[in-house]
Structure formats: C-alpha cells, structure tokens
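A common beginner's mistake is to predict each chain separately and then try to dock the pieces by hand. The better habit, illustrated here, is to supply every component at once so that their relative placement is modeled jointly.
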Amino acid sequence: MGIIDDSVRENEAYASSFTSGDLTSPPSKNLAVVACMDARMNVENILGIKLGEAHIIRNAGGSVTEDALRSLIVSTKLLGTKEFMIINHTDCGMMKFKDEDLKSQLLEETGTGAVSPSFFYPFKDLEANVREQIQKVKTHPWIPDSIVVRGFVYDVKTGKLSEVK
Amino acid sequence: MGIIDDSVRENEAYASSFTSGDLTSPPSKNLAVVACMDARMNVENILGIKLGEAHIIRNAGGSVTEDALRSLIVSTKLLGTKEFMIINHTDCGMMKFKDEDLKSQLLEETGTGAVSPSFFYPFKDLEANVREQIQKVKTHPWIPDSIVVRGFVYDVKTGKLSEVK
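With all components supplied together, the output reads:
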C-alpha cells in the first residue's frame, strides 16, 4: 500500500467524527501565516490555531515569494485578514545548499536547464532572511499599510517562537 | 492585545510541553502535500499526518504555481519525498472572483497596476482544476517520473477527501 493510500484511509477516520461543517471561508481570527513546509512544524499547533481561524501559507523556507504575495493579497483583500505572521525556523533545509549547485544537479540529471523556477531562494542568515521577508510584504504596493506584519524564528528543538525585530 | 500576540502566548504553552526536538529534516513518510491555505483545512489532521512525516505546501487555491514547483523540487531532490498529494476543496474562495476584477480593484485602490503577481489563478471548475495541477507536476522536467502524483477534492462540509481521476 502506498503512502497516499495510507493518508486516504486516515481521512476516513477523520471524516467519520468531523463536526465543523458550518464554518465559513473568512478566517475568524483575521490572521494569515507564512511558514516553511518543513515536516517538523505543525503551524496550527505551534500557534494554537483552531479550525476556521487563520490562512496558512507554506512553502520551502517560509519565503515571501511572488506566490506567497498572491496568497496574502487574496487573504486580506477578499477574505479580510488583518495581521500577517512570517515564520522561518532553525535547521532549515534552505540553509544547506546553493542555488547554482541545485540547478547544476538538475541540469546534469535531466538535460534540461532553462526551466522555471529560476531560483530556489536558499539563504544563509536566518534572522536576516526573516527581516527580508517582512520587508517584501511591507513594501508591496498591493498590501495595505494597515496590515500588521511580524516575523519569527521557530526553534525545531524546543518548539519555541522568537520574534525577529 | 493583537491577534499575533495571542498566537505568541499560545506558543508558550505549546513549547512548555514540546517533546519532539529530535526529529530530523527529511519527512519520515516521504510525502509532500500541496493544499489550499483555507482556514477550514487542517491538512495534518485531515490526513492523519504526525510531526516529522510530510512536507506541507499551501497557497491560495492549492495551485501548482512556479513556487509550489520550487518547493516540490526541493522536497524530492534534497529531502527525498516520493509521493505528492494535491488537495483543492469545495467552497474555495478562488472560485468566487475573476482575475481582471481583482486587478481592477487593486489598481483603483492603490493607483498601481503593473506589479507582480500578474495572475491570481482563480478557477471555475474544481475537478478540472485539480487535473490541471496534477498535469503541471507530472510534465515538469525537473520532477522525476518515479514520483506518484495524485489529486483530491476536500469537502469542507463533511471532512471527506475524494480522489480526482
């Protein structure tokens, strides 16, 4: 049995006791979170977020890419969120390679080089990276100035968040 | 007290009973999931995924954008995932607007038009959209053919997943 088959079977148990079918689309806490896809982060649990409360956007690194901005704009303009939280974390895989090395590897393995994504956005300095992501949100012309934007580092060893100022 | 302050306080309770500090970066179930950011989806609970088991990628719609592909390539090439699951859902906010309307609204409100993101990727047909996302993964030259890619619709009223074939 495959990995996905296992998840589908797990979903049967989840659905059999599901009782939250009345929730509506706009997040009741008016919160949107951008975080890394890392398997060691359960964003809802880390932040005590219950079903229906917040948009959760996740990608490699917890980066404010063009796509994360797309999601944040939809989140605030169409679904009313008012505070954005950006979370990167310790021991992130995105701190362990160089863009040019991964691209060379892909070119060598597949024979195809000129393909998007053009960049993988690895980074070296965790706190500096969080600050850069905050700036990318705050300076975007389509994100209202009234939105609160704060950035954090999550420690995968302790479960603790620390704010980056 | 702000919304984020509330989440930071919730994290103190989470960290105080945290016991999973020994997990490593590669997802132990070799699974990556692409799902919508919708507040009514707790992806880990829906799929019975425990801490450390899977990469969770989320954005507006659960779309296989260039950024989701970036994350999936990092996931499989650097961290060894072998199966990808794509999950869209019923009552999605991305089925309720037109790209040109949102862009006109943003231009009118901010006076700024020519900014990325250039597209917000709304869609009309849920199952057709899932099929399109599967295709975008399967045809990408940097995603190995050996990767299992399957797509699902999650019903926010019942908590149930249905596979799209």
